[in-house]
Design goal:
Distance between the termini: 37 Å
Order of helices and strands: EHEHHHHHHHHHHEHHHEEHEHHHHHH
Oligomer: single chain
Number of strands: 6
Strand content: under 5%
Structural class: mainly alpha
Helix content: 40-55%
Strand order of the largest sheet: 1-2
Largest sheet: 2 strands, antiparallel
Shape: globular
Radius of gyration: 23 Å
Amino acid sequence: MKTYIKLFALSSLLVLGACSEDFLENEPYTDKVTDNFYKTPSDAFEGLVAVYDVLQREAYGTQLIVSEQASDDCFGGFGIADPTTDLQWDRFQYTTDKDMNALIWTNSYLGIYRANILLENLDKVNWGSQTALKTQYEAEARFLRAHFHFQAAKMFGEIVPLDHTVTTSEFQLPRQAAEVTYALIANDLKFAADNLGPENYSKKGNANFGRITKWAAEAYLARTFLFYTDYYEKPDLAGVVTKDQAITYINDVVSNSGHGLVPDFANLWLAASFANFAGEDNTEMVWAVRFNSSGKGNWDLHEGNRFQVNIAPRGGSVNNKYATGWGGATVNPKLYEAYEGGDTRRDATIIAYAEESLSFDAEAREQRQYTGYSWKKYCPITDAAGTAIVETNGGNFQIDNYQDLAMIRYADVLLMAAELNLLSNPGLAQADLDKVRDRAFKSTTNRVVVSKETIMTERQLELALEGQRYFDLIRQDMTVAKAQIDNTDGGSDFAVTFRPETLGWFPLPQSQIVLSNGTIKQNPGW
């Protein structure tokens, strides 16, 4: 059976090359066959675009919102009449005969599949003198393959690692031990880190902003190292990357990448800064998933950030400032209260309705689990008349929001470096932590002594609502996760009980269990 690849444009980052006349005369207009497609570097580029394209599907409201609802930073939220599944995400009460996590699973494997298609066909391309380009494309594809594996592995635990496109005889492969998956992830990231050049694409107007760099690969190696070695209590990353190597990689990003902190934390987020917004291609963004509003209401296109509408205020815009959405993942007051006085990150991260003198009638807006707080990070904004900016520009507020998703910020790099250097070089760890806190308080007088505890606290405050908190909790251990996530404040509507018997993993989509014909079993506790 021939494999077909549908090609999509990736935001404003990459533009597909036009097909030649000969190709159009002999092949279908919308489908390209792998048997005769991969011939030129341009063909390989189009294949790479198809891999990048899958990143945008995270904005449909998958891992980012699910993990935030499961953490101690948010509740389920959404509307009173919305499906109860939104609340189940928060209460760890999944109904396992439903496909509640199907998008997370299928999007991860779609990305893995497209990456493997490209990697298996690179040798068919006539590269001529452009052999360095082949290495670059391989490195980018392998990074993305690692990313999609990690997205699934940190949600579901043991998964099915794939370093090739499967044949019909492999459709019911069993899950593998975590070490097997993480060895593949580590080797892919190591290849990317060791083979990509020192380019830094976070420069104004750079057409390559959003593409994988050496610095993103090195930082991602540190992220996977910390999660794997903490959660599984291992000394190295699946026998592939030692702690010393992980330290070398992350220190390289800190010292040599050219990335740095934006002076004012609020300027990283459009709804927190408006006219002072630093722009998405700012020096702090080591890697981001790109979006734009070019779809103009076309539901067949997927250029916009569909995540943003999920967390925006429910029932209409607020005070001609914050645009409307579905009110998902209401913010836990405990997160707001966790910030110290003078910490500029609090008001840049969270919309505080009473504190900002904002009018919000939760009952009239049918907001479930109203806490008085919601997301400012990623919240879409309005014009002076209260109309969503995206609609002013001719788009649809549900599908055409355009803010990029920050995947790796330099602040995260500094905190990972502090954690990795803590035992071997505490002075350097202290300096890295100080940089993050100094920026947060705009002062050097609020420093704290570096330790694992202070680093984890700083990660919660700095990276709140960016999809890291839940995984930071479960990688410490189930006792820590339960102590932080369990909630009895606010009555029964806000009651949350983390169940350690799940080992922190989310339930597998039931459809995948059925399709596996018994080779895949449901996760423990579900």
